[in-house]
Specification:
Elements (H helix, E strand, L loop, with lengths): L1 H16 L6 H21 L7 H13 L9 E5 L7 H7 L4 E6 L2 H13 L5 E5 L9 E7 L4 H8 L3 E11 L14 E9 L8 E8 L1
Parallel strand pairs: 1-2, 1-4, 2-3, 4-5
Antiparallel strand pairs: 5-7, 6-7
Helix pairs in contact: 1-3, 2-3, 2-4, 2-5
Length: 209
């Protein structure tokens, strides 16, 4: 239990440093998600991050850093992997319909177990290539999953007319900007500071023209 207490302290300090306020229930469920990911990762190799404390920083806090920019009633998380940032966002700000999309069967099996175990209402996981997903979403998230050109080329049809696309990147992707397809425009670029993570993190907010 001491290990969980240490992880909780790291998570709570990070949440405070991000300027966020989360309920005790949300913090507990985020730790339950991390524990589930750690357990499955041993067998299924879902993420290269193995250290629990690193999972808190690189997965949970990195995902929560974009929470202030998330909007709308529906969200699609493309190339979600083991549920990042979709599951932390679903736990931190419940009440919206969230679709988690990944083409990897192992990862989607994990996602379905996480949704069931964590009782994530309104969240569903689909195994699919992004191009084949249907529907329109107020908010789309994608974490370092492809170039901006490919992201929007494959998934642009999923963005609602007034929706926003949140592309999570490491370094500022200036060289990718000329490849943004016609009909889309960058609305803002934000440098994110993830507590405990020395690496650069940027968020690009895109929308329809």
């Amino acid at each position: 239990m001491a290990a969980r207490d240490a992880l909780q302290a790291r998570l709570e300090q990070g949440i405070a440093a991000l300027g966020l306020t989360l309920s005790a229930d949300a913090v507990s469920r985020l730790l339950d998600y991390q524990a589930l990911l750690e357990r499955w990762n041993a067998a299924y190799n879902l993420t290269a991050v193995r250290d629990p404390a690193e999972m808190i920083t690189r997965h949970l806090l990195d995902s929560l850093a974009i929470l202030p920019y998330v909007q709308g009633n529906t969200l699609a998380d493309l190339g979600t992997g083991p549920g990042l940032p979709g599951i932390p966002l679903a736990i931190a700000a419940p009440g919206r319909d969230i679709l988690l999309v990944d083409s990897n069967g192992k990862k989607v099996r994990f996602l379905r177990e996480a949704i069931r175990a964590l009782k994530l209402d309104g969240v569903r996981a689909v195994q699919s290539r992004v191009e084949e997903v249907e529907g329109q979403y107020d908010c789309i998230t994608a974490r370092a999953f492809a170039s901006l050109a490919d992201m929007l080329g494959w998934g642009g049809h999923l963005l609602a007319p007034n929706g926003i696309w949140l592309a999570m990147k490491g370094k500022r992707p200036d060289e990718e900007l000329p490849g943004i397809p016609a009909g889309f425009v960058v609305r803002g670029t934000h440098e994110l500071s993830v507590p405990g993570l020395p690496a650069e993190r940027h968020l690009l907010v895109l929308g329809r023209v």
